[in-house]
Specification:
alpha/beta; Undecaprenyl pyrophosphate synthetase; six-stranded parallel β-sheet; 6 strands; binds 3-methylbut-3-enyl trihydrogen diphosphate; binds magnesium ion
């Protein structure tokens, strides 16, 4: 495979449907999905991908039933507490994007310590979108800029300045977005950053996502021509 995305973003979808089909509670789907994700971090790095961003919990997912929200928070808490060893072994840098202030304080602390412990690692940059919404991210960035600068600065605000105030500052935009389980929508993920990304929709539910599925997505990506609004050589 010649063209590999530098940055892959994934909307991990279908955990609930996967569990239901097996006669299991939805939360069993989330647990299975979390295990697949840990392995996928190693698989994507070995393909040559350098940034992986996954949608783990949206600003709208608080509308799920309380027991599902707490099961998801428990999985995230366990991940933040228990994954440092594996992250260090794989030289992986972990970052969380989203509104962390909306999370319980012990979870915020575990996130901060995992981010800190892995901040100097030079392997995969693994971004977890947690209490994340694309609209919320843009609104938070604008509010932050407005609180730090005067009205003249805000009137002349540039694309680059706003981009640098987002949670993803310093991270290149995703080249490829994959969404699993048949749904073909963004659901408020990385609205700004996906401006020129390629999209790939996989039918399988996230807990069934395998290296072979990833290879299919990468093959499709490799066959596409990205134009960024211009023309490529030979098209002029
Ligand atoms: C994705 O699976 C995980 C989260 C949104 C947290 P879902 O829970 O959305 O599973 P489906 O879409 O209901 O099957
Ligand atoms: C998007 O999936 C959020 C995450 C994967 C974390 P949802 O399952 O919440 O999205 P909708 O409701 O189907 O659009
Ligand atoms: Mg879903």
């Amino acid at each position: 495979m010649d063209k590999i995305p530098l940055h892959l973003a994934i909307i991990l979808d279908g955990n609930g449907r996967w569990a239901k089909k097996k006669g299991l509670p939805r939360n069993a789907g989330h647990a299975a999905g979390a295990r697949v994700l840990e392995d996928m971090c190693e698989v994507v790095w070995n393909k040559g991908i350098r940034y992986l961003t996954v949608y783990a919990f949206s600003t709208e997912n608080w509308n799920r039933p309380a027991d599902e929200v707490s099961a998801l928070m428990k999985l995230l808490r366990d991940y933040m507490r228990n994954s440092v060893k594996r992250a260090m072994k794989n030289n992986m840098r972990v970052r969380v994007i989203g509104d962390k202030t909306g999370l319980d304080s012990d979870l915020q602390e575990s996130i901060a310590s995992l981010e800190e412990a892995t901040s100097q690692n030079t392997g995969l940059t693994f971004q977890i979108a947690l209490n994340y919404g694309g609209r919320d991210e843009i609104v938070r960035a604008v509010r932050k800029l407005a609180s730090e600068h005067d009205i003249d600065y805000m009137r002349g605000l540039t694309d680059k300045e706003l981009g640098d105030a987002l949670d993803t500052a310093d991270i290149p935009d995703p080249d490829l977005l994959i969404r699993t389980c048949g749904e073909e929508r963004i659901s408020n993920f990385l609205l700004w950053q996906l401006a020129y990304s390629e999209f790939y929709f996989a039918d399988c539910a996230w807990p069934d996502f395998t290296e072979a599925e990833l290879d299919r997505a990468l093959e499709s990506y490799g066959s596409r021509t990205r134009r960024f609004g211009g023309l490529v050589k030979g098209e002029e």
